[in-house]
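Exercise: predict the fold of this chain.
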Amino acid sequence: MIITVTVNPSVDRLYKIDRLIPGSLNRVEAKKHMVGGKGFNAGRVASLLGSQTFVFGFIGGENGKFIEQESHHDKYNTWFIDTGVETRNCLQIIDNNNNKTEINESGLPIEAKYYAQLKNSLKGILKSKDVKAVSLNGSLPQGCDYHYYLDLISLIREIKPSCAILLDTSGNILNQILDTNIKPDIIKPNEHEIADYLGKEVTTDPMQLMNDIESNPNLRRVYIIFVSLGSKGCMIKHGESYYYAVQKKSKLSIQKDLVTQWSVGF
């Protein structure tokens, strides 16, 4: 079983326009709204691949009702907690040149009792089910800081030491957690997020990224680091091995031909 946790989901509203003109009237050509949240996306893929998956999360208000209704179309199981607080909106505006502008609301504050409820629910399922992996996803609502993720990681470690823990977040939350002694097993920053943590210029050079990770004791202690590099592919740390993968244009490319492996210090 796989569990994903999303404490700050959203309803994503996508607007397609001809050209975004700040300070002027912009007319929408097409619009769409959908469930947002990395944990929902991860849960959807995991369930489609055949894993029994539970998606945990806070919901509230009309947006929360929308998320609950939409979840019925997916194969994963849900464990929603209704906080009575309206779930946030995230806006994406895309023009005809595929330039994207994002406007993300912060999640409104949630009472402490709901955080405790989610933690207790997670504790119960960890004790009663054969949970192989837990994914902690996304940002946190106002009034909640990185310590909540640390509490959840510690709980998982205590109950299911062999359970893999993936932390898919960014910014100060990721940076502060990496600076503690409590580490997830897997993180997946992009090139900007890892550069922010390292205090270095953004790079998509996999050799440079490998050297930067190896020179940082906190990152070396994370077993798997998946660095997404946009159109440049991805760089992966797996234990003491490093891989660089790019997607070729040919649909007939074989997966193993896309991977180059380096040993540490190469």
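Check your answer against the key: Helices lie at 38-48, 61-71, 112-128, 147-159, 171-178, 191-198, 206-214, 217-220.
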